[in-house]
Amino acid sequence: MKSRMRQFLCVVVACLGSVTCFSQSALAETEAQRVVNRLLAPPEIKTAPGFTAKVLVPPGELYDPLFMFPHDGAVWLTDDGGEADGTGSRIVSVDSKGKVSVIVPYTTTVPMIGGGIAPSGFGNFAGQLIMFSQARTELAGAFVNHIIQRLDPANNYAHAVVCTLPNAGETGHGIPGVGVEARFGPPNGPFGDRFFAATLLNGMIYQMNGAAECTPFADFNKFGAPAGIGFTADGNQMLVSTQTTNKDGDPLSGVKVGGGLVLRVSPEGKIGDEPFAKGFDAPIGIDIAPQNFGSYGGQAFVADSGPSTEVPVPLTQRVKADGKIYRVTADGQLQLVASGFLNPAGVKFVGNKLWVTDIAGDFIGGRRELPDGFIVEIEAR
């Protein structure tokens, strides 16, 4: 009898006058499901007047959705998560209704961070995927020299390393690690036919050309560490978001609240003395609103992960919802667009709508292999 009592717990349902019994294994499954349901609960996004938001891709399908680029009428993006025998991360396609399709599975290559389709002027790489990547998986891979690789769609996305980024800068021992956003410059402008990648660890942005030359482009150590890359509407200036950490050169020491900037950078890599905008906590993605985005055409929209972006969170606890989306007015002031995000990363205007990716619990940094990432779509009223 005592053995049976240890194996079963009975709950008296008084109103029904009956007894319902659950095995301990069933109770464990119920508890596990309760935890998962909490971690994968849809976010509660609140918008400022003039905007509406909806969850386009809810938690449960994506691990850490990062940076987006348009392709064939859909949006492609890197999804950092999943590991198998030294490989990890994948590329997925998301359509206008939020349907997710896997393009490159996580069993293909080392973790990819950001990239895009090489333009026609990019030499022999034209039409191939150029991806900024870690050289190996797991957290240790974030702190070694990152690589740029190409994946060939015409050959089942066969991949090869194009270059290993060289050491540069004075922080982080000059190691180009902890990679963040990467993207091509706008075509037909001074940044055209160049691929740019930001590394937090040594505070640099690198560039690559169609001849596979990978060189330092701009050193941000005077201002913090670069995270997001964007361009002005005319394509003549680069916009870079920077984060300041509590301990210089240590991206895991937590961000300095209010120390985030957006800076202007010339095509030659010269950083402007006056910031484009300031007062962020942990800004990352940047994009410029099209003219048909309500009355906000031409304004920069910026994702800010908030002050708790690097605070360790137990696996069973939900990440703090202190992430926000801001817009920058013509005079450089920040105006709140939406709140309730967990760790927003990439922002991209898709037609007249703004898509925001949110990684929620970080897979690489926090070792949270959980599909808790999501995508939110914002419209201007």
Task: Explain what this protein looks like in three dimensions.
The chain is mostly beta strands and 381 residues long. The protein has two domains: 1-39, no CATH class; 40-380, TolB, C-terminal domain (Neuraminidase), CATH 2.120.10.30. The protein is 7% helix and 45% strand. The chain contains three helices and 27 strands. The strands form seven sheets. Strands 3-24-23-22-21 form a five-stranded antiparallel β-sheet, with no helix packed on it. Strand 14 and strand 15 form a beta hairpin. The chain is globular and about 65 Å long. Mean pLDDT is 89; it is low at 1-19.
The gist of it:
The chain is mainly beta and 381 residues long.
List keywords for this structure.
single chain, 381 residues, mainly beta, Neuraminidase, 2 domains, five-stranded antiparallel sheet, four-stranded antiparallel sheet, 3 helices, 7% helix, 45% strand, globular, disordered N terminus
